[in-house]
Amino acid sequence: MATAAQARTWARGALRGIGDSLYTPFRGTDGDDIDWDAYRTLVRYCIGDLGHPMLWCTSGIAEFWSLTIDERKDLLEVAIEESRAINPDVVVQACTAAMSAKDCVELTRHAQEAGADIAYIQTPMMEVHGGDGVLRFFKYVAAHTDIALGMFNSPSSGYVLTPAESARIYAEVPAVCATKEGAFRPAGSRMLHELAPGLLVWECDKTVYRAGWLRDGIVCPAQLGTAGYLFETPQRRLFSDYWDLVLGDKLLEAMDYARDNGLDQFDLDLGPWWTCYPARSDYFTHWAGAFKYAASLLGLPIGDYPHSRPPQAELPAEAKVQMTAAYRRLGLIT
């Protein structure tokens, strides 16, 4: 674990490779309980069977907005226990976003004490007074904790930081060392790099990696939070092989690989279900039920309550049909 003072030096060497954002498997009436056996299996699958070097815990895919404080703490502790038993060097990233700064401090301090390596704070979801409010939020958390911090700039918050606002947070909060840019606005990430060249940026728009941005140092060699385990199996390591080509600066080979092995087509075939609820098509969401349905297609356990908790809707049948067809076409299921 990096302290706040060590954060930026530590991040340069430690943040590398695929970081799996874990879903939360529910069970019981209304999904009020967590299926801990299923969750442990998921962690072991990502770190052991797939060999991915990083985890991203209790964030959007995990439905942090529907979890209690105690559940979020328990999920992080189990992830650390299971993953480090397999790979003591695994990098564990904890999302500690919360509706109040005090709850965020409690979760961040717990991540620090439990042995997580870095805590990410999603732009506050409620009543945020622009960049000034987000900066104040980060300063408050940093003043009460001693762990590396990251930003998670997601449109699901309802407010997306400008490059100048993110750069200001980096300049004024020394613990901040990385950001997951989830707004799919590559020009903004490039501007952010110019304003804060020391900040490690993960851009969710994958095209920038093919454009050589990793070679140019605009983006970092780590996927700070993605669902990489849903793009491959231990028998067909499509996503890992593709990412290794990108990391090796073999960009033409990577593009050929993604085309020839179906990864590019898979993005089209899946449709928008992971991040778009049709009745609110202008809103970016982490539709956890869709991620979990995809996991079930690959044989991963998702608990006997397959849906998201409220306030998310249940995944419709048409989504399941489309996603099943996409996985069959990719060849990960028959």
UniProtKB/TrEMBL annotation:
<dbReference type="Pfam" id="PF00701">
    <property type="entry name" value="DHDPS"/>
</dbReference>
<keyword id="KW-0456">Lyase</keyword>
<dbReference type="GO" id="GO:0008840">
    <property type="term" value="F:4-hydroxy-tetrahydrodipicolinate synthase activity"/>
</dbReference>
<dbReference type="InterPro" id="IPR013785">
    <property type="entry name" value="Aldolase_TIM"/>
</dbReference>
<comment type="similarity">
    <text>Belongs to the DapA family.</text>
</comment>
<protein>
    <submittedName>
        <fullName>Dihydrodipicolinate synthase family protein</fullName>
    </submittedName>
</protein>
<dbReference type="InterPro" id="IPR002220">
    <property type="entry name" value="DapA-like"/>
</dbReference>
